[in-house]
Automatic annotation (TrEMBL), chain A:
InterPro entries: ABC-5_transporter. The keyword Cell division does not apply. Keywords: Membrane, Transmembrane, Transmembrane helix. This is ABC-2 type transport system permease protein. The keyword Transmembrane applies. The chain crosses the membrane at residues 20-44, 64-84, 109-131, 151-169, 176-195, 236-254, 274-292, 298-320, 332-354. It comes from Saliterribacillus persicus.
TrEMBL record, chain B:
Keywords: ATP-binding, Nucleotide-binding, Transport. Pfam families: ABC_tran (PF00005). It comes from Saliterribacillus persicus. This is ABC-2 type transport system ATP-binding protein. CDD domains: ABC_DR_subfamily_A. PROSITE patterns: ABC_TRANSPORTER_2 (PS50893). SMART domains: AAA.
């Protein structure tokens, strides 16, 4: 065959270059300025420390690089396949003696080349810089490889998705918007569904659901999470797979696509209902989420669902019809409303018994409980390792869970936080390997004290709560004891053992309330095992420990003589004032006690754990001449002598 | 050569062409007439292999046109507003066509340049609408197509250029047996060059005729008798239309000229005059015959 009929058509390549070459050239220059040139400027500059500022090449002007990384593939994808969106051009291109798939490959790969040529050229410059610079600490070959990988991964996916969406729609603007939506969709829809389940299902743990690192599901959010992971070639696999899938799907759609779809919002009429109901559904969820965040009352949330669903429905209708006047298209909306109401009712009336489910005692292998809600810093394995397994604890958790379920009526969606509010977070590990996860917010934990106390005071829970509680004495290499003024080392095995004995006993004695509210833990012990350190806080109230320390290290503990003064605040003042006594305002009620005797009396008074009718006492020490800690004393418990002084 | 069989095309819910049939012989010039929205452009795009019919088939030389690069290599379609890549000069476009169509004839391109008198180094977008259309013809003729499909080609061309282009078309048809399909909403524009005419209305052909047959077959007869015209004569002639002005009858009659003439003579009319019809008149009467008023179908 003649050259003309071969795969490559030089003139089409020229046309491609004329239509997207400018993006490619601009991209090349921007990259050149962002990386090779700025690195060159640093290398020739005065500051020798720059190597410490950047870990890798992405960190150079990271926001700008990410912006380019998102926009350039999108732009090239839009412009290179512009010919299928503009009617006269579509007619012209498809009247040429070239088959569609050849046209596709021609455009696709030219676009791809123009997208990556600037990146590859810049990588080449970086390699040159690496070889010619003496400061080899600034760029490593591995950095250049990682940088290329990041550009390749995200660039390829965003580009292929843009192309793919191009075959679904016939309008470039819609193509751009749908591409972004599509790229965000996997993460977005999960966010929407979870946050709405959180509204509708009592006990649903949204945070737990996040644990699968939802953001990785969408290339854009994945990219923004860049700091949280290592660049690895393994991450390339799903990206390459997706690119291949979208590439093949695009070809498939091209063969099916009517050329006259140019300038239609959707090229395939079959997609219209999916698009319309999809948009409506997402808007509805968004509305629910918005009103729950902003207002939080059930009425408003329902209002949000309805209004946003209507909004989404008519918006999608307007896009499809390319017309403002779509108000007569009501019928579809009623179908949608009917279906959604059924789904919502299934969830709200909890047909599947999600809300009332408590696993039976026999099913449960163990249960993890946290009173601070879900923590992103904990690994799942950590939770599983720290589950409660004793029959007693499990039974106690079940009782608590039952009480929480019965308390559903008192729940509001946007509760107020109080100092004693708690997020009870439960994971039941069942014998069959499955998990049941629930999360409940308790506005006033004191109402649950009866149930919380026996659970949190068990030895089992305490050991889980404080990792040092389960340390074996023989394995500890050394212990350091620390007060605000002094730090000392214990290395004598006998003394170490004795100290651990005491501090463990004291911790076992601590009541639930003390575990919660004690603020004067001004001492801490640090246990060292190999390179690991464990912290144990304690205070003068841990009597066994303090007595033992006083016997062995008379200098250690803080006596009333060491204190400069106490400041007593009446109840309506913010504690923050205590940290900046210099800015003391006129007219506030406070009293300063300086006599050692008085200080001792207050320190010995019963400390309060209630949040009402209290004096706040600030403790200041002489050595550092500063604020140490505060504690609360109930008005009734304040010694008469001091009350006298305060008048 | 071009065969359209039972072609139906819908744009979503709108039925544009319904079970349409069309046959165009090699070396003929077919005029596709119809008012706006009759489906002319859609039909031309289907025949050019740009869009696909929902059902039915379109073949050129017995091969399906859709996605057939070898066939499309011999076919040029000029749409009602010709498309050019933006910021291309005529020369650059010529390079594109040269690379894309195997039968490109550079000599012809240069010769035609003298006829069209346009600067090939100028960007096409700088040209006026009519000049752009000339560029489209220039490029099309230079590719030496076997099939040329033109959508409303003479809009916006001045009479001189119009004549030139028509001349070029006729020349190619005569010399190389090029097959041409021209659409228009205006009969007068194409009657001098087409040898077949089809009238498209609401997605189907209302009428399809060989023009030579048409012209010799229909006659306007002015005739007067002593008293009423004989019933027998009226029955024996195929009269598609009749009027009476005073004692003179005006009949539009179909049939062979000699036969009609002889038949009439035998009744010895007082006055007899057989006149040829203009194409437009023929169409008006033909359309009446199939139940359409021409002003609804053609502009």
């Amino acid at each position: 065959m003649r050259l003309k009929m071969s795969w490559f058509n030089k003139e089409i390549a020229i046309q491609n270059f004329r239509s997207v070459g400018w993006i490619s050239i601009a991209y090349f220059l921007l990259l050149l300025f962002t990386l090779p040139l700025s690195i060159l400027m640093m290398l020739t500059g005065e500051d020798d420390n720059f190597a410490n500022y950047y870990d890798d090449l992405i960190s150079f002007n990271i926001e700008f690089q990410f912006m380019m990384l998102m926009i350039v593939p999108l732009l090239i994808g839009l412009f290179i396949f512009r010919y299928i969106q503009v009617k006269p051009m579509a007619d012209f291109m498809h009247s040429l003696p070239i088959k569609r798939l050849r046209l596709f490959d021609h455009h696709f790969w030219m676009g791809y080349l123009l997208l990556f040529l600037p990146v590859i050229l810049n990588a080449f410059f970086l390699v040159l810089l690496y070889f010619f610079s003496n400061h080899q600490g600034l760029i490593e070959l591995k950095d250049i490889g990682d940088w290329l990988l990041v550009y390749f991964m995200y660039g390829s996916l965003i580009y292929t998705v843009t192309v793919f969406i191009g075959f679904i729609t016939g309008i470039s603007v819609v193509q751009a918007i749908l591409t972004i939506v599509m790229l965000l969709f996997p993460t977005g829809i999960i966010v929407l569904i979870y946050s709405n389940l959180d509204l509708l299902l009592y006990g649903f743990s949204q945070a737990y659901a996040w644990d699968i690192r939802t953001s990785a599901l969408s290339p854009i959010t994945d990219m923004l999470d860049y700091y949280y992971y290592e660049v690895s070639w393994l991450r390339l696999i799903p990206y390459v797979l997706l690119c291949v899938i979208f590439y093949l799907l695009s070809k498939f759609l091209y063969l099916k696509r009517p050329i006259e779809a140019a300038s239609q919002a959707l090229a395939f009429p079959q997609l219209k209902p999916i698009f319309k109901f999809g948009v409506t559904f997402c808007f509805m969820l968004l509305g629910g989420m918005y009103f729950a965040e902003v207002q939080g009352q059930v009425g408003w949330i329902i209002f949000g669902y309805i209004i946003f669903a209507i909004l989404g429905y008519f918006l999608s209708e307007m896009i499809l019809q390319k017309n403002w006047r779509v108000w007569n298209a009501w019928r579809g909306f009623f179908t949608y409303a009917g279906l959604t109401t059924i789904i919502l009712l299934i969830i709200v009336f909890d047909i599947f018994g999600y809300e009332t489910k408590i696993p039976t005692g026999e099913e449960i292998e163990g249960v993890y409980v946290s009173e601070d809600g879900y923590s992103y810093f904990e690994e799942n394995q950590f939770r599983e390792d720290n589950k409660l397994t004793s029959k007693r604890s499990i039974e106690q958790v079940r009782k608590l869970h039952e009480a929480l379920i019965n308390d559903k009526q008192n729940q509001t969606i946007n509760p107020n936080y109080h100092p004693d509010s708690k997020n009870i977070y439960l994971i039941y590990y069942l014998e069959d390997g499955s998990e049941v996860v629930r999360e409940y917010f308790i506005q006033h934990s004191q109402q649950y004290n009866e149930l919380l106390k026996p659970l949190f005071e068990t030895q089992e829970y305490k050991e889980i709560q404080e990792p040092w509680m389960s340390l074996e004495k023989e394995k500890v290499d050394s212990i350091s004891l620390n007060s605000p003024f002094i730090s000392m080392e214990l290395s004598d095995p006998i003394k170490m053992e004795a100290f651990m004995q005491k501090i463990k006993e004291d911790y076992q004695k601590r009541s639930y309330e003390e575990m919660q509210y004690r603020e004067n833990n001004i001492y801490y012990a640090e246990f060292q095992i190999n390179d690991e350190y464990y912290h144990a806080n304690f205070s003068d109230q841990d009597e066994e420990t303090i007595t033992w320390i006083k016997e062995n290290f008379p200098d250690f503990s803080l006596a009333a003589e060491d204190l400069l003064h106490l400041v007593i605040l009446s109840e309506n003042h913010s504690e923050e004032i205590l940290w900046e006594l210099d800015n003391w305002k006129e007219g506030t009620d406070y009293w300063i006690l300086e006599e050692t005797g008085h200080i001792e009396t207050v320190l010995e008074a019963n400390q309060s754990i209630d949040w009402e009718d209290n004096y706040t006492v600030g403790v200041y020490d002489k050595v550092n001449n500063g604020y140490l800690y505060t504690f609360q004393v109930n008005k009734e418990d304040m010694p008469a002598l001091i009350l006298e002084k305060m008048k | 050569m071009i065969k359209v069989e039972e072609v139906t095309k819908r744009f979503e819910k709108d039925l544009v062409l319904k079970e349409l049939n069309l046959n165009i012989n090699k070396g003929s010039i077919y005029g596709l007439l119809g008012s706006n929205g009759a489906g002319k452009t859609t039909l031309l795009k289907i025949i050019s292999g740009i869009i696909k019919a929902n059902s039915g088939k379109v073949t050129i030389e017995d091969k399906l046109i859709f996605e057939n690069a070898l066939l499309k290599d011999k076919l040029i379609f000029i749409p009602d507003t010709p498309y050019f890549f933006s910021h291309y000069t005529v020369n650059q476009l010529a390079d594109f066509y040269k690379n894309t169509y195997s039968s490109w004839n550079q000599n012809r391109f240069q010769q035609l340049g003298k006829i069209f008198k346009l600067d090939p180094r100028k960007k096409v977008h700088r040209f006026s609408k009519g000049m752009q259309r000339q560029v489209a013809f220039w490029l099309a003729f230079s590719t030496m197509p076997e099939v040329l499909i033109l959508d409303e080609p003479f809009d916006g061309l001045d009479p001189v250029i119009r004549k030139k282009v028509k001349g070029l078309i006729i020349q190619d048809v005569a010399e190389r047996e090029m097959t041409v399909l021209i659409s228009s909403h205006n009969l007068r524009e194409v009657e001098d060059i087409c040898d077949y005419i089809g009238i498209l209305h609401n997605g189907g052909f209302v009428l399809e005729k060989d023009l030579d047959d048409l012209k010799s077959d229909v006659h306007k007869i002015q005739i007067a008798f002593n008293g009423d015209p004989p019933e027998k004569l009226i029955e024996s002639l195929n009269i598609v239309h009749q009027e009476k002005r005073g004692s003179v009858n005006i009949w539009i009659v179909k049939g062979d000229y000699a036969d009609v003439d002889q038949e009439i003579r035998s009744y010895q009319p007082i006055l007899k005059d057989i006149l040829p019809l203009t194409l437009e008149e023929i169409f008006i009467y033909e359309m009446e015959g199939v139940g359409y008023a021409i002003e609804n179908v053609l502009v």
